[in-house]
Amino acid sequence: MVIFLLSFLLLYGGIHLYAFIRMDSIFHFSAGSKILIICLLIILIFAPLLVRIAESRHLEFLARSLAYAGYLWMAFIFLFFCLSIIFDAVRFTFKFLPFAVTAGPLINITFCLAVSLSFIFVVYGYFDARVIRIKKLEVATGHTLPAGGKIRIVQISDVHVGLIVKEKRLQVLMDKVKEAQPDILISTGDLLDGELNNVSPLAAIFEQVKPKFGKFAITGNHEYYAGIEKSLQFTRQAGFDVLLDEIREVAGINIVGIDDITGRRAAAIVNENSRSTKTMPVIHNDKFILLLKHQPYVNKSDNFNLQLSGHTHGGQIFPFRLITALFFQNNYGYYALEKNKSLYVSRGVGTWGPPVRIFAPPEITVIDLIGQNAK
């Protein structure tokens, strides 16, 4: 986590340095203005840390204000950087054109264009992040199933309940889940994102949905960042049966939940005999196996028919999807791995960091498992 924070601050600070140099080259700030702008940029760079500090001291209004300002700016500056790099590359090619192009006007034009497009995309992404889509999927199996041979599984992932995802957005989510009429509700991790003293009352909202075959959840990396014991308490208060490298046999299928790799690595540091050393639990029947794993890593030796994962957010903000694709071969969507073995990676419902989604809208996955009718 320390390495991640240092790397993030170094990269994020570098983007701000680039933006400052671009602005100064156009506006030619005075010495006093430069000092003020640099101080403001430093505050924005450290805004994510200031949010956590304010939240830990239960200064919720300050934390939320900082979160919206800091994270919306994060989306804007990230988009501005990406667009500016593209425009710089285009502007560079103009040097090789047979007709003369003045550099000054082009610099100003591309700067204004990058600012304008970044602002438009952030506004669009902010509102689009609140419109939940329903992704429908049918999975056929030769296994015998109750209830007429069909089970409806609804997957939610990466809700990130916290300062930004609160009562109103959770109620919209639960309304969508109720409309889907799940037989089983699954949460594939990162249900939480914040200090649990501030979000604990929100667990009651999840109690509105009570599928006939139950609700099951696994941990994500943010459950560990927020504090694993209180995260587990919140998830159970929300009515979920939390599976930590465990199996539940319900509705004629096996549901296997694997603890997130973040916790497994942390446990391995302090206890070599912890569950971090375990493999997938052994299953002693031939029923359909639904595997829940937060991060979309596929272990070819694991015995499962369908794996449900999340974590990537589908990139959340479009250019970032190219980066997540470097780390996760299965970045988003449905993957037929081999015969009777598939994977679905959800974009998730909430947002991490910027409350913005660009070309990666939030989704609930409705999976109809179609099998043989149990007589």
What does this structure look like?
With 375 residues, this protein is of the alpha/beta class. The chain contains twelve helices and 14 strands. It has helices at residues 2-27, 31-45, 47-56, 60-93, 103-128, 167-180, 196-199, 203-206, 221-226, 228-237, 261-270, 318-327; strands spanning 133-145, 150-156, 161-162, 184-187, 192-193, 215-217, 241-242, 246-250, 253-257, 288-292, 306-309, 333-338, 341-345, 363-373. The strands form three sheets. A six-stranded mixed β-sheet has the order 1-14-2-4-6-7. A six-stranded mixed β-sheet has the order 8-9-10-11-13-12, with no helix packed on it. A hairpin with a 2-residue loop joins strand 12 and strand 13. Helix 1 crosses helix 4 (60-93).
In the CATH hierarchy, what is the class of the largest domain? Answer: Alpha Beta
How far apart the termini lie comes to 52 Å
Oligomer: single chain
Which word captures the global form?
elongated
How many independent structural domains? 2
* Count of DSSP-assigned helices: 12
Tally of DSSP β-strands = 14
Described by strand count, sense and barrel closure, the largest sheet is: 6 strands, mixed
Strand order of the largest sheet: 1-14-2-4-6-7
Which structural class do you get from the secondary structure elements? alpha/beta
**If you consult CATH, what is the topology of the largest domain?**
Purple Acid Phosphatase, chain A, domain 2
Stretches with pLDDT under 50, minimum 5 residues:
268-277
| Helix percentage | 40-55%
